[in-house]
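Components:
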Amino acid sequence: MTLTLTLRTAPTVPLEADVLSPDRLSGVSALEAAKLTVVHGNQRADLGEFFQVGGAADGELHLTGDLAQVKQIGTGMARGRIVVHGSVGMHLGAGMTGGEIVVEGDAGDWVGPEMSGGRIVVKGNAGHMLGSARRGSQIGVRGGEIVVFGNAGNEVGNGMRRGLIAIGGDAGDFAGVNMLAGTIVVLGRLAWRAGAGMRRGSIISMHPAELLPTFSYACDYAPEFLRVCLRHVRGLGLTIADSHVNGRYQRWCGDGIELNRGEVLILDSAGTASRS
Amino acid sequence: MLVRGVLIEDTFAEAFTMRVARLVITGGTPRWAREAGLKLTGFATSVIGCKCEAGIERELSETETPDGRPGVSVLFLTMDKESLPQQLISRIGQTVLTCPTTACFDGLPDGPDRLPVGKALRVFGDGFQGSKVIGGKRYWRVPVMEGEFLVEETFGMQKGVGGGNFLILARDADAALAAAEAAVDAMANHPGVVLPFPGGVVRSGSKVGSKRYKKMVATTNDAFCPTLRALTESQLPEGVNSVLEIVLDGTDAPAIAAAMRLGIDAACRPGVQAITAGNYGGKLGPHHFHLRRIMGGESQAA
Amino acid sequence: MGSPLRIVNGRVYDPANGVNGAVQDVCVRDGKIVADVPPDAKRIDAAGMVVMPGGIDIHCHIAGPKVNLARKVQPETHQDDVQLRTRLTRSGTGGTVPSTFATGYRYATLGYTTAMEAAVTPLGARHTLEEFHDTPVLDKGFFVLVGNNLLLYRLLQEGRREELRHALAWWLKVTKAYAPKLVNPGGDEMWKGQRNANITSLDDKIGSFDLTPRRVIAAFIEAGNELGLPHPVHIHCNNLGHSGNVETTLETMRLAEGRRAHIAHIQFHSYGAAAGKSQSNPTSRARDIIEYINTHPNISADVGAVMFGPATIMTGDAPLAYMLRRFGGNKWVNADTENESGCGIVPFRYQDRVYTNALQWAIGLELLLLSEDPWRMVFSTDHPNGGSFMSYPRLIRLLMDRGYRKEQMAHVNQKALDRSALRDCQEREYSLSEIAIITRAGPARLLGLTDKGHLGVGADADVTIYEEDEDKEKMFSAPRYVIKDGELIIEDHELRADHQGRLLHVAPDYDPQIEQVIEPFFEDFYTIRFANYPVDDRYVPNGQIIPTTPSVAAAPATAGTRT
Amino acid sequence: MGENLKVVRDATCTFCGCVCDDMHLTVDLDQKRIMKAENACILGKAWFREHGIEERPLALIGGRTATTEEAVEAAAQILAQARFPLIYGLSDTTCEAQRVAVAIADMIGGTVDTTTSVCHGPSGIAFEGVGESTASLGEIKNRADLVVFWGGNPAEAHPRLFSRYAVTPKGMFIPNGRKDRTVVLVDVRRTPSTPAADIFIQVKPRSDFEVLWALRALVKGRKVDPSIERRTGVSLAVLEDLVARMKSCRFGVFLFGMGLTMNRGRHFNSGALLALATDLNEFTHWVAKPVRGHGNVTGADNVVSWQTGFPFGVNFSRGYPRFNPGEFTSVDLLTRREADAALIIASDPADNFPKAAIEHLRRIPVITLDPKATPTTQLAQVAFTTATYGINVSGTVYRMDDVPITLRPAFESPYPSDEQVLTAIRDRVRALLGGNRLPAGAPVAAAS
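Structure:
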């Protein structure tokens, strides 16, 4: 049986519910779950003050309601599954190492900060700092996958070291900034200054993008790995056209200020990329 | 027992535990995948002389490969754990890396041992190579003049079976060959099985050691050579003038048994007198394929 | 000040008073150790426990401009190491550079009650005092950076030694400092004025000045001794961290010529150079250093041990930090202070597999294990340069437990051990009394703090009570009780009260005429008015002046040419 | 002019981040006015001239006159009851007051944020990523032979940056002052500052990052495509010339303003400039310095940092400091309608915040401390009138280069200082809560 939580009373100030993780709820009854502690602003509260709890925890957690004020769902999650029928607040799946989170609505800023495994799927839009390093930290996502069907804000994958971020819509400025490795696929528009400071890693764009002056054009080709990658992304639910899989891409290397070992791949049919 | 008048002798094929890897080679067209597969598995008939045995398992359609391109699946076997990666590294390096349009993927993702093949091959990139993790698997992208060669970092290795076999005893060489061809055709594309010899067929069955030359590890199987019927302790029934052998290697015994059934059945045709198999008395190899049991009958053989 | 208190049944380690583990009472009243308290005084039963004076850190970096930069530049180290507020105490964050409140509380939870911030620019004195205000429990003082001061250089260059002494006294007094500090003398001028160059030997010319580090160091040692400061000139030698710097260090110590001098974090200055190709690899010359110190009672040092794990390089030695910047994970801070100093900050991590780091670790231990006079070779990690003060208990265990030490030695880079003498001093184990000396009595004596570092009548009632444990790291990690100024701050290992410690500073006399020399320099070269420079008493709500004993009277300065 | 005149020498002007401490003020003690401010720039003169004592009530509660004590009680009640209170402003008050404000935030489990989050917050974030090479203003005066202003208009916003610190003054190694320096100005438009420069580089709006990135590449000896001119309006030749100058000077400095930090790219713009300065240290001595606006915004950064480990945007709701710009910064949390009370100290967000944030301020109880009536004090539930720092109140301020200076007030004010009011509020809140509020939750263990 699944543990189901339905938002009954909207929090008046941000609610921090890091307890909402299948690991932490393993074997917990609905009654017990309702007594678990959440942080409502500067005070403790029972989960049951806000949520109608039903079922029992068996590794799967279903949340329903507009949870845009609820932060830190799935913090440190290692296994199991969370499905959110609604939107969620910041820090979804922070530091998660395994399992899966599916959000039917939107997610706030900081989805999957410094996660190292597992998968987060956001069917709506996501905020800024999707899959990013925390401030001051040089290393962001260390593994795992984040899929956003809609748009994402600025600094997607800041400091990313491994893993995959796939965005069905547009990405904001500085996607893949300071990337160390990993892959970011953007099916919509890539905004300004993608890949600034990247050392390694790949940013894939299906639309023309203005690149920094420190990125150098290499060639047009059909990267074999990209076929594998895009087919994988297709398997995660994003719409990948055959023309994307079979397409030819411009390879731009950068960032020249750093190792110059990263790349931005821009679908050729999208037209000529231009330097900014 | 008889299958369409062909005697299935009550004996068994004795096979060995080998180490097997499966490679999926894709190409821009089926042609180039096949070319790479053929070169890769060339000169890989028997561990006795080739250190490895390999063959194309089957051709793969676009829907069956990791990158959605046509490909071939190859099984690669060695006797011990150590030589499998060595063989793969040197052979893939010379025959797939070099072959236009191809990429090379692991076909045994659940293989308990992981062979660092792509990891070794990456250094051809001279530091310019890059890696990518997709769906939990790491790939290496090695820059080449054409573009990039993509190879998976590790390949699964598991225990396999080598040396499944049966012998077609026929009235004459034409009948033997026709039966062998029919058997090979029947077994083609059978999952988990490859036939490492030319066209799947071997005419030079061997015995262990030599009666005359100390250094030879294997010499002609004189007991089945028709020309030696008068000179040796021949095991050829009367009327048999030509023998061809089919050797099967595979990922597991059931796959070999299933393929043998198809192959033997197809080989039972006019001009074939009997089907038998090679063994060493059952003491050397752990896998025994009893011909009659395979064909659905009873066997008394040890 | 807390109510009167009698500590009974504890084994007392008070080496300054010759008490070595005797079970005797310690009585506390009005913030001081007293001979007796009324029978109804609160009692602490310290049976099975060890009673020591509160710990004294003679050299650490805990407050002021550079510390705050180092805090700000590492938010990622704070997030996962937090200090929760309680009903009484403030919250904070940790990492190798904790917030002020966390610094005070964490020192206290290790049994430390006094700490000396070892490098403050005079311009940053006010800032440092503001941070001290928010650093609870501890008594604190700071060493003020004078070794790259351009006005003092001008005076020295012109041979105006007396005025130099008066100016030094002025600087100590108006900044409310505890002692003068030299850091890589001449190095900052090379760094700021000569395109990021550095001093390489005591006889290098310092930029456009007709001076050498040798002259600067000798002059300051002389002036410091003449002023009769409770703690002599505190010297961070030239060439810190460089292979072969042992010669510079020995030469610096010789410059004292029998006068008092304290060499800071000497571990970082005890390196030889490997012969041949690997010349840039340091070797251990700890033996040469410790032999010199063993035989020269005028010299003292703190060890500056290195502990594996995270650290933060923060130093007035800007060229050094620049050299280390590639280890900083993309982060490097440099901060120049006009006419006074440089500063560099680099996040760092010591790794046991890395040759140089393992060698540094070994040298720190060697120096302590080969030391014959624990009163003059005292404990420090140059927090957070060699590791956080939170690693002190482990360092104590390394000294007290040779089995543990041997075990740890097995994990480190063995080539480094080959280049050190650590394997030759495997037998020695520090006694509790020796630990009490290097962490308490010794630092107090070197600092000239007569009321600290001991438990004699009249001493400050700063007392730490540890539960005895075979595992010395555990024992020294969490004292059962800590008493500061007679108040029970920690009871049953937990913070029970907040407390505002004192500022310890000096106020040496100087000839007021010296201001006539200093003020014009301010008008020309400072961007802060001379009148606004001295730190007033409002920044020292709880100060204590430690007296000086000058050997030379504050005679009028000889008239000199205006600089 | 009255009879009762006093001269205050070496007073400090807190109008901007220059914090010039050489003001000689002539004060009419009867009129409680500053008649003359010798050495002050035009902005400073206006600052000193305007700060007389207005007849305002000591406090207003719901718009009605109240005593300070009544207002303290009302403010303490609001703060003690709030679940997600915001304490904001702080850059125009003393460090002594700032310390108490952070203490209140800690005690109640609120959020403390300063105006840094809407000015040089991006530079703070950039600093956390790459560090910086910086210097006190006197080093610039004494040594800088190449001065590059980027994204600022000092002539109008920080006049004495030119005259006292960075352009015209003579220094120890700059004996001839202006003649010994090369001054470069980079901006998107010509301003009254432009004529002060030897070289003016006009960049297209929102292309600072590209220019800085290209400079970094050139400094590192990497290739930059001439198409840079199309994007940024600056030719490769101009960039190459600048790089040659930057590498060959003896002591170079960037002084950068909000023109850089508050345009698209924000902290990455600051970060690019800080990184460029760092890169240049490979060749010669280089420093960079954000030019700060408010008189003690640098003090606020310092106080919040030493008390919490983070410079601004710090939340205490779980019982320990957390830092996250965008989450705990004022505009963001007000726009998301999260705060349920606000204590605004010496700042006027109702005048300069985005509309959505101001609307939320109207919804929640707001407490203000300000010497003057402002749009924010007008929407406040509790408004204290306080004395002006630097004019009526002593205390510590930090110059933009982190140099702390003690203020010398000119005359007394009938109003209490921010510090006094905040201390009273803190003590009353403490009484109401029985000490600090106990932490609401342990650290999120797996957040790393």
